[in-house]
Design brief:
alpha/beta; two-stranded antiparallel sheet; 27% strand; disordered N terminus
């Protein structure tokens, strides 16, 4: 429990209690979905800092739900086993051999590492995948792409890559009433029991929507959304985010993250945040200080 006291001490110094308490009261009893990934997962000190913050959120009456990624770890295991990977628009084409590895890495080693770290910091975390209790029912994701030479459009079969069709939150509701923090691997289940690999951002957004979460937090490897001059945008509306997507102001991996945030807000999530997971205590800084540290997206 000393570690928790250390985190509380940090909160008193970085954000005064008088500043933090109104936010704590506002979020009390509400669900907060955190997508955890990027370099923060591979750094022991950052992983410990993340775990402390999750435990503190639970202690002050907020219900954190952690959804994690694991792309680099999957890639390393596939390479070790000699299984080659193809990508379409950044999505891994996942065949029957690859999906076994994906499930093993995500629902096995990574999930249990996160659970163990949270428990070591005084919490009670339980690891789940989207297959447990049919938490995430999924359908195959089809991606349309255009041939660079002919310009013809075609639909690419990504194999066992899925998208959430339905999130059954009964299990999460029960856990929210307890001291347990759910840690979810983004694996979905099909109508016939098939296993599907789901993008972690997408899974987190779908879970946030189903829970009507007060916040969706996407931890990344960048400070947040940047403007045309490279400056951080601390807050934007959904309309402003849509206009950025319609133009060329954002590119690469930020596009699907913004799309996930917009979809979640459209489906009853209170607000969405894109944060730099490499910053220690970034969740507390964003939630419990006036100016935050990343980009917050709010409804128009």
């Amino acid at each position: 429990m000393q570690r928790i006291s250390d985190t509380k001490h940090w909160l008193r110094t970085a954000a005064t209690i008088s500043e933090a308490l109104p936010y704590m009261r506002r979020f009390a009893g509400r669900s907060l979905v955190i997508k955890y990934g990027g370099h923060a997962m591979g750094d022991d000190a950052l992983a410990q800092s993340f775990a402390r913050d999750v435990v503190l959120l639970k202690q002050v009456g907020i219900n954190p739900v952690v959804v994690h990624g694991g792309g680099p770890q999957i890639a390393r295991m596939l390479a070790r086993l000699g299984i080659e990977s193809d990508f379409v628009d950044g999505l891994r084409v996942t065949d029957a051999a690859a999906i076994e590895v994906v499930e093993m890495v995500l629902a096995g080693s990574i999930n249990k590492q996160i659970v163990t770290t949270i428990n070591a910091e005084g919490g009670t975390a339980v690891g789940l995948s989207g297959k447990d209790g049919r938490l995430i029912e999924a359908t195959p994701l089809k991606r349309r792409t255009r041939d660079a030479e002919t310009g013809a459009e075609r639909v690419v079969d990504l194999g066992f890559v899925g998208e959430p069709e339905r999130v059954n939150i009964g299990l999460l509701d029960h856990l929210g009433e307890s001291d347990i923090v759910p840690v979810i691997a983004p694996i979905g289940v099909g109508t016939g029991g098939e296993t599907y690999n789901i993008n972690a951002d997408t899974a987190a957004g779908a879970i946030a929507s189903a829970l009507s979460a007060i916040k969706l937090l996407l931890l990344t490897d960048v400070p947040g959304v940047l403007d045309g001059e490279g400056a951080l945008i601390s807050q934007m509306t959904t309309g402003e985010a849509q206009r950025m997507l319609a133009g060329d102001a954002v590119s690469g991996g930020m596009i699907p993250k913004l799309e996930t945030c917009l979809s979640a807000i459209e489906r009853s999530t209170g607000a969405a945040h894109i944060l730099d997971g490499r910053v220690p205590h970034v969740i507390l800084l964003e939630l419990f200080t006036e100016h935050g540290t990343g980009t917050m997206i709010v409804p128009d």
